[in-house]
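Weekly structure sync, notes
Attendees: PL (lead), two postdocs, one rotation student
Agenda item 3: pending single-chain targets
PL asked that the sequence for the first pending target be pasted directly into the notes so everyone works from the same version. It is reproduced below exactly as submitted, 444 residues in total.
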Amino acid sequence: MKTLIKNATLVNEGRSFEGHLLIENDRIAAILEGKYTPSSEDRVVDATGCFVLPGVIDDHVHFRDPGLTHKADIESESRAAAYGGVTSYFDMPNTVPQTTTLEALDEKFQLGGRKSHVNYSFFFGATNDNYTLFNKLDIHRIPGIKLFMGSSTGNMLVDRNEALNQIFANAAPLPIMAHCEDTGIINKNMADFKARYGDDPEIWTHPLIRSEEACLTSTQKAIELAILHDARLHVAHVTTATELEMFPPFTSRITAEATVGHLYFSMVDYERLGSQIKVNPAIKNFRDCYALRQGLTDGHVSVIGTDHAPHLLSEKQGGAAKAVSGMPMIQFSLVTMLELVDEGVLPLERLVELMCHNPARLFEVADRGYLRPGYKADIVIVHRGEPWKVTEEVIQSKCKWSPMMGHEYQWRVRDVFCNGRHLLSPEGFDDSYRGEAIQFRKND
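Predicted structure, written out during the meeting:
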């Protein structure tokens, strides 16, 4: 089966150029610049006026499956991913049961094979005592080790110094993706604010409770451990300007992820959206948001993820203590970042590097993340045109809400190909398709 995507602007590896892309079966067969007359293709997709990008790789999602499927599951959230132009994702281990045993990891992969509309893999979660399992993990099957150095949803906190040293000493060659917040500082701040404001302080206190100091202290510790043990460290959802200064540009040993939510929202948005944008670590002030945006182009930020974390809207009620943390963003991540391109925050080519190329490079994903002949045909076609609004009917996530509700976008994800399959088109969504397990470190 051959499919030609013609008359597009292709964005790939630092370039935007006019051309065509040929798909044969599940792979990219050719990238064609200049004029081309269709000949033996079985299907032609006209992308005139559109941009063709590699499928987005989201390195940070919580699809709540197994055990928390009243909020979300792999089927619903992978559908939302596809609608958002995300063709591959790495899911986090704070499910029920937690993905901290080999058996639980195998169960996740079985669920992915049955339910995921796009390509999938799963982090293995670190605990205070399971580092002895690391050498039994298949490094070609998973992206890395997820470490919670701060307490968050799921209570997977690892806080013993001996355990942390063992995790950093034994993780290689897998990278460690760390949630960095100091729980002792957070607990003290929470106690202080409860003493002043009652059992559920207002939501504006959340970034003061989960403070800059809490983030900085933990991130600094993680970097020191990574250097000590020569480990590969990827710090999830960095939120502060001060933390960013700790990440040298253009390195692949110690890197930082920024999330769409932290890049788009700042503290002023609590007044409008309240606990809908309560996440851990907290969305902080505009100075930090501005620094994160600067980090997209100065090299301090290496990857854009979503930390897509659905909850029922009823679970989001309350303030800094009672409302749960996390929000769904995967369906609107690419179009939101395209808005920031329009605002001049970053070039389109850099967006593709941060959302497609770098996740593939840093986690050593095999044959994905680029528009290259021989690579898997994970492809997104986007265009800027008639405005559309986020409504409940538009939302594909099971929770059926988003902090972007009511927002009007100019950009639209028009088509999505996953492994050569035309998964999303103007005609609809191919509900029958299932993605593939992602391969890593193929040449090891």
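Discussion points:
- The CA atoms of residues 84 and 334 lie 6 Å apart.
- The longest strand covers residues 2-12.
Action: rotation student to compare against the earlier draft before next sync.
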